[in-house]
Amino acid sequence: MSDHIRKPATLITGANGEVGHGLIEQLSQDGERNIIAIDLKPVDESIRASCMATIAGDILDKSLLDRLQSEFEIHTVFHLAALLSTRAEFTPELAHQVNVEGTLHLLKLAVEQSRWHGNPVKFLFPSSVAVYGLPDVSYKKKAGRVSEREWTVPVTMYGCNKLYCEHLGRYYATHYRQLAADSERRGGVDFRSIRFPGLISAVTVPSGGTSDYASEMIHAAAQEKPYACFVREDVRMPFMAMPDAIHALLTLASAPAASLTQTVYNITSFNPSAGEIRDIVLREFPHATISFSPDDKRQAIVDTWPEDVDDSAARRDWGFTPGYNLARAFDEYLIPGIRRLYNI
Ligand code: AKB
Fold first, then answer.
1. How many domains, the chain?
2. What's the 209 CA to ligand 1 centre distance in angstroms?
3. Cα-based torsion angle of the residue sequence 173, 174, 179, 180 in order, rounded to the nearest 10 degrees
4. Disulfide check for 269: which of 179, 240, 247, 278 has CB 3.0–4.6 Å away?
């Protein structure tokens, strides 16, 4: 029998993604040894050594979930696997399967795990600014900093998926088997969710997101590739540097349950326009070729997302504070990281 059997473990789905990479590296640096990493493809070599176990598999595959149940004792789940907003529009039914049914499978696993080891399973779920749906740009400008209960009328399958999964998680944490005999009524899921803004990483380029224009612009400039931005120059939405997203997940995960007054939290760091991002990139890469060629359909999606979000609840309940404002994000994280990545 392997020596990792029944050690209290942390399960990470979507391990090869942008957030997955950063999270595994940080958890490993923090001394976490019992990481189970899952992705559709074999887990990247660069993070494999940091994991107790790596599995190439589909979270929709019941036999995979049965294996997780039989082989491991899971106390924390970071469920990162998802199809992002643009990609989900091309395959909405597949997005629903992965984003919703996949989440349901993981919540069920968390319930079963909690029943076996007798402790709540912390379930960290990355939701998104995509759950918001402002009717048009004029409402977007008037709405300003949107709070968690406002304008949750998403226009994308991804946004609908994320909003529904927020409610699924709250159900499993609070109402699961509510008609069962008291002795049986134990969800055992400690569901905690963050509505992430657009995330910008120095080490990976996202794929399939509608907020990807910021990352794409920076990475294209560093590779001296021309970039035609698919949104208007004046478009504004909340963003965050990837290290702050990882730090926020870990801070929420370690917060005492008693301090949390809600299951879903907004967070943000800065909300530049696409033109302001262009200006900063040109300052660093003066020969970059950056133009604006809006894709009307993708633009229409971003126009429904708020210019900014109110993250006061996260600051109050679990002490969220971003480490990087716009200037520091570029000067201290993005530019140095991208120069290292492309050896420039
Ligand atoms: C996307 O663009 O789909 C994601 C998101 C905003 O959650 N990055």
1. 1
2. 5
3. 50
4. 240
